[in-house]
Design a protein that fits this description.
With about 110 residues, this protein is of the alpha+beta class. It has three helices and two strands. It has helices spanning about 10-20, 75-85, 90-105, and strands spanning about 25-35, 45-55. It has a two-stranded antiparallel sheet. A hairpin with a 5-residue loop joins β1 and β2 (about 45-55). The termini are far apart.
Length: about 110
């Protein structure tokens, strides 16, 4: 989705998650920024953020116009998928590294 005029990136992200997944989240710190050029007229800057559920008992309800399915996967399953599929996943890999370091620090 796009950021609405006057919205912060965090407000826009929380709104898009609410619209597409019907859940409420707290948006945390950004941890990955990248750009893509999809055509001669489309240049996008993307920012990945950490987020946490406001209520852990929320049920994800996909907006069928935006998504057809979702699944929860373990970090190991995710990383194993990207061992075989070299394209993509860089931002999530970095997020897992950051979270691992924070968890080691907390212990």
């Amino acid at each position: 989705g796009d950021i609405g005029f006057g919205e912060t990136t965090e407000e826009g992200l929380a709104r898009e998650i609410k619209e597409e997944l019907h859940i409420d989240v707290n948006i945390g710190e950004p941890f990955y920024v990248f750009t893509t050029i999809d055509s001669e007229t489309q240049h996008t800057i993307e920012i990945d953020y950490f987020a946490t559920l406001i209520d852990h008992n929320q049920d994800i309800q996909l907006n069928p116009e935006d998504h057809s399915e979702f699944r929860w996967v373990s970090q190991d399953d995710f990383l194993n998928f990207f061992k075989d599929n070299k394209s993509g996943g860089e931002s999530a890999k970095k997020g897992f590294v950051i979270l691992s370091k924070k968890n080691d620090y907390i212990r």
